[in-house]
Every structure is written in structure tokens, then in C-alpha cells.
Amino acid sequence: MSEKYKRKYTFGEDYGTSYYKFGPITLGEKPEIIENRGYFPDKRSIMYRLMGVERDVIVGKNLPLYLESREDLSTRLIYPMRNGVIDREDERAWKVIYEITRYGLEMFKPVSPDFKGYYVCASLSSVAPRYMYEKLFEIHRRIDEETGLIKAVTIIPQPLAVAIAHKAPTCVVIESGHGNTQICPISRYPIRGAIVALNRGGSDADAITSQILYDAGYGDIAREEAIVRRVKEAIGLIPRNLDEAVREAKRNPEKYRVKFKIPGTRIEIDLGRDSWTRFLIGEYIFNPKNEIFESYFRRGLPKPKDMKVGEVLFKGMLDFGEAIVEAVEKCPIELQPYLYNKVLLSGGNFQWKVPPEFSGIAVDAVTKIRLLLKEKGIEEVSVEMAPEPKYSVWKGCIVYGYAVPEDYAWSWDRMEGWIKLHD
Amino acid sequence: MTEDLIDKLVFHFTSKGFMECSVDSIDPSSRPEIAFKKGESRVFIYIIDIDSLSGKGAIMKKIARAITNEHSNLTYLAIPSEIESSIDSGVLNDCGVGLLVVDDEVREVIPAKNRVVKPMKIGEELMERIRELESKISKFERAIVELESMISRVSEARTTGESIALSEKIASVERRIEAIEEEMLDIKRKLNMLEEKLERRRAEVAEIPVEAVEEVKAEISVEGLPSFFKDNPWVNILSTRGRRVEEHK
């Protein structure tokens, strides 16, 4: 039964910080995708009564239709995985996870009589503590009891899924998301003791973009999170060397001048002679230790701090090069050259443009990582960007779910295998 | 009246090279009406004018203050000539306190005796700081003098044709340095691009020994499955989970 059955009924779930990507193996190359969030409507509101909403939490593609006043959003709209870790006692966040998991599975409820439940492979952040695994298993068990949709379930760390999707059994995966970055060496198994977590991600680039906009006189725009993110994506550059890039941009201000018109509005942002600040946005993600950032910290830019979540210490100010070296050096010496031989970058935080006219001054994420490692004396290194990083975790889940034998039972020591929910 | 006396005393002492100094920082119990300084030597003057005679024991109090003062090298009592007769000059003489009688001019009737002075009540730290500041000031003064002489030399040179030629030369050198800097930056950019190309080539040809030595026999079929299954070594690695003892870190 196994192989043939799994060809139809393997199901992948990627609980990303911003999006939940899910779907069965039969979807082919791309999963379904919804925002990883849930909305708790105000049950007293007229809207609630008119719409006839019965559930406590709304998730899925139609969620925006239920949104009410803007003031309420911060308390009613919950992004449970914002930091990759959910508190054990955060009932609302777990409620959202239950709802989106059920939503995803019910979207692909097969009608075929041979269906006995999916082999579900879910994926969590590599820094997720054990209780998150327990909670997620519990949620799947409950959904199976209610729907019969899950035959067996397993959970793998996201970097392992990335390595699987990119066909790399020995590598270092750097997964950089909205709130944090995980560096995970892999050699057929994730080397859990060597994982390094950074308390820095795309949201930090948003923060410095906001400060740059504020300094340039666009204080109103600086407060709009979604607009700031678009500005960051449009104007941010990674410098090969920050000091040289700033000097060059100040010398040729017209060449580096940037204007950005916010689509659908009359607003145009023009950084004018301060266009050199574009380079700060990219540098800040990779290396926030440059002296130039001190003046921003003094003016209120939140300095990335060391932070303990559960048992994991998320480091704030380590540059990406140092973090990779720290992770690799926790592995056996013999393995280290092989790990440097394949450094995989994954996650939306590595998607940076390099306009051809700035080549030599601005670089892409791959080159920046290579340069940071070179500074630390690591030259024999191969860095690659995961193509289509958005879907690679889901793809890895599908391969894992399909390939791992069904009789390989879950072990808390190994943190892998299947938990069978019903026959 | 006191102002008149003070004016005359100031004239008297300044004409002898003394400088008037502030009495505000002196302990009130021994504070004089007026004080002077010349080098390290300090002079305190206690004034008894006709107005102060109306207070009971005012003269005695003033004399006592003058006698007990330990912070000046020379101490004087200054009085208008009208009350000269009421002062016991012998007592003052015994105590080392001088007597100045002021009418149209200032007469030194009894000279004051020079005494060793107790240091003022200023903290050692403060004194140290003052000394530091003084030394800094003197350095600044020297620097200012040097700068002034340099400026005067430069302004003298400017007037000559030689200096015009020199500044033209400097400007030309500056232009050349700027051009060289730009060229260097351009070369550096090109070098970086070449390096990047080289790195990419290296990455393309780089072999990954671990994968090369792995000879994994396909155990399950991936035909008809999505493209990410094709040539994926993980399929076979994962399909052996639980089937054989594997190295596990």
C-alpha cells in the first residue's frame, strides 16, 4: 500500500512566519498558500451578527472580508509564528494554528474511497522547543479525531526541509525570515547542537528603512509598515563594502539617487542627496556592527538584542559570517570543509536586487555572505541561493513524507519518524 | 565712605604692583573687605570706617578677625584718619597686623609682618584640576602664538608670486590625486567583478566529496513525481530511515 498510496496522499505543511504553505503531493511544484494568521472577530459587533460567523477564529483567503475597525487589528489579528516560536500558554496563537491546519486539510479532502488519511509532514522553525512539537501533534490528533483526514503525522525542522528540496545532504542552511534567522548545519540529519539563531530578520531592515524615511522628511510614510516594506524592497541595496559604497554614493549623488512612487497614490519618495542611505538597509541585515549605525541606535532605532525564547538564545549583533562560522565550528572538524562547500540561503530576507549600473559596489546576498566569510579567513566556500525559496520548505516536507517508511515510528530522541493516528 | 576708602586703597596697592582679587571664595569668618595679590603673596585689608563705629564692639570684632586670619601673608587694618587715635597700635604691632591710615592718601603707620599662610579650603582635587587647566592654557597660548606666526608667514607668502605658483601646483596635484582615486575605484570595481565571476566558475566546477562518495542505491521510484524528486539523493537517504544503522550526529 505504502508507496502507491503516498504518491496520492502525502501532505506537506510549512508554518512560516508570514505564510502557511500547504497541500498534497499531487499539487506538483507549488503548494497552496495563505497568510499564517487568524482573526478573532468581536462577537458583539453588528458585522459579526450580519455575517452569521459561527467560528471564534477566521483564517484563510476570505479573512480580509471579516476585518472590522483598524484600531482592533493589533489585538484581534494574530500572527502566531511571527518569531518562529509560540508560547506554551498562548492559547489564541494555538487556536489559529489549529484553524489553519484544519482549513488546509479540509481544502483537499479527497472523495476517493481508497483514502484512509494523509501522511502529513509538517515543518517548524529549527529553534522550536519540544512543547511546540507536542502541541502540534496534539492538534493533528484532534483534527483526525474530528475529520479522519490524517493517517500519520511527522514534524521536521525547516532547514532540513530546505536541504531536502535542494538535494543537498551535507550543507549549512541559513533560513532568514521576518523576525529571525536560523543557521543549521545538516549532514543527513540536522545537527541540532550546532544551530545558531539570530534575533534579526526582514523586520530589522524595515525598521532602518523607516528611520531613513523619517530622516528624509517622510515621517507619515515611516509609520506605515506595509509601505515601508515596499520601499525597502524597491530601494534597498547590499554594499560590497559599506564605507566604500557610501563614499562612492556621496561622490556621485545623482547616479545613486533614488525616487520611488508608491503605486496607486500621488506620493513619490525622493531621497535626493541622502540616497547613499540605501546601502545601510542591506548592510544592517548582514552586519549591524558598523559604527555608522550607532547614530541610528542613539536616535531610537531598536538595537537587535540577545533574546532567550524557550531554551534558545537568539543573538542580536552577530554578523552573518560570524554566525555561520560559529555554527560550523560546533560540528566535527572533518565535516567542516564539506559544510562550507554548500551554504544554502533560503527565505525572503535574501531577495535583494543588484541594478547592473551599480555592479562592483552593490552585491547580491550570495556575494555578501561569501565576503563576510572571506573576512573570517574562510575562502573555500560555495554559497548558493535557494531557487524559489518560498516553496522549498513545503517541497522538502513532501519528499520527506513520501520517502520515509511508514513503519519508522516517531522517536523523541531522534526527533523524527511517524506518529500513526489511525489504521 | 567705605567706597571712598576702598578706592584709595586700590589705587595705593595697584600702584605698588598688586592686583585686586575676589574675596567671595574666602571663608566668611576671616573674609576682609578687600584683598590683593602679587605673585604668591596675598594681602587682606580689614576696613574700619566711621559708620562701623556705631555698632557695639564693632572695632574689636574687626580687629579680632584681622588678627585671627591665617590666609594672607600681609594683614592690614585700614582706618580713616579721624579715628587714628582710638586704635591701640601696640596691640596690632604685637600681632603682626599693619595699620593703614587713609585721608587724602594712604599712609602705612604700622607695617604688616610677613607670615606663612595656611592653604585655602579648596580640595586637593580642585587644585589639581586648576593646575591641569593652567598647564593646558599655557599650551594653548603657545599654540596660538605658533599659529599666529604661521598665519603671518602665510599671508606674507601670499603676496609673493612664488606662492601663487605653489598653490597652482597644489591644485594640480589635488586634481591628479582625485583622478587617480577614481581610476583606482574603477579598477577595484572591475577586479571585484572578475573575482565574482571567478568565484561563480569555481562554484560551478567545485566537487562535493561527500556526495561523490555516497553511492546510494535507489530503493523507491520517483518517476511521475514532481521535479524536485528527480536526482534527489535525499529520497534514498530517507527511504533507509529505520532500516539500517546510520551515523547520526
Q: What would you say this structure looks like, in words?
A:
The complex is a heterodimer of chains A (423) and B (249). With 423 residues, chain A is α/β, with parallel strands linked by helices. Chain A is built from 18 helices and 20 strands. In chain A, the strands form five sheets. In chain A, strands 8, 9, 10, 11, 15, 16, 17 and 19 form an eight-stranded mixed beta sheet that branches. In chain A, strands 3-2-1-6-7-20 form a six-stranded mixed beta sheet, with helices on both faces. Chain A has a two-stranded antiparallel sheet with strand order 4-5. Chain A starts with a helix and ends with a strand. In chain B, strand 5 (98-102) and strand 6 form a beta hairpin. Chain B contains seven helices and six strands, in the order αβββαβαββαααα. Chain B folds into three domains: 2-110, Trna Endonuclease, Chain: A, domain 1, CATH 3.40.1350; 124-159; 214-249, no CATH class. In chain B, strands 1-2-3-4-5-6 form a six-stranded mixed beta sheet, with helices on both faces. The termini of chain B are far apart. Chain B is elongated. Classes of the chains: A alpha/beta (423), B alpha/beta (249). Chains A and B meet through helix 7 and helix 18 of A and helix 5, helix 6 and helix 7 of B.
CATH architecture of the largest domain in chain A: 2-Layer Sandwich
Q: Strand portion of chain B, in percent?
A: 5-15%
Binned, the helix content of chain B reads 40-55%
- Structural class, from helix and strand content of chain A? alpha/beta
Our measurement of the CA-to-CA distance between the termini of chain A, rounded to an integer number of angstroms, reads 12 Å
Alpha plus pi helix count of chain B: 7
Number of strands of chain B: 6
Mean pLDDT of chain A: 89
Question: What is the rounded distance between the termini of chain B?
Answer: 101 Å
Q: Major beta sheet of chain B, specifics?
A: 6 strands, mixed
